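It is time I had a proper look at our fold encoding. Can you supply me with one protein entry, sequence and fold together? It will help me judge whether the discrete encoding reads sensibly. Leave the record below and I will have a look:
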Amino acid sequence: MGGMIHIVDDEEAIRDSLGFLFASRGLASRCWPSGEAFLAAQPLEDCSCIILDVRMGDLSGPEVFDRLLAQEVRAPVIFLTGHADVPIAVEALKAGAFDFLEKPFNDNQIVDLALCAIERFNATKAEDAARRDIAARLATLSPREEEVMRLMLTGELNKQMADRLNIAVRTVEVHRGRVLAKMGARNGLELAAMVGTDNK
């Protein structure tokens, strides 16, 4: 599973132990001694998961998280928290954090949670890429092809489309073929699955 886990904690012992743990499980990680250092390095293209301590010397974990949100960094954030900080972590969850772990945690807990976060992030990235690809294909359609596509998505037959658009059935067939070719769909069902019903 690709991607880098970024560990942000001002305690060197925690950074070292987590870095060693992830390496022992075949996971790449990079450590940061402060929230400021991590934020200064943004944007990080390889960032698939962020492990962020709630309490740090300068910027706190939640403050770093707020700045990441403002920078539209979408990598999932897992907070490390002491018992007294659980309410803070719960608020971070409401704001969009992936999860939190209360110290002390066991090795399997944090590895499993990081793997889940990376899997979710990779799936979201793939979905985003697919949406961008579909949007780019839609942008290649002519206004008439867009009209035909919308009617295709309602399930209308070629004859019905021809009557509605006041054009020949053969012309509808040509436009329909171009729509499918440009969108990379084999038939109307594939097209509907690709673009959904929002374009009706």
The chain is about 55% helix and 10% strand.
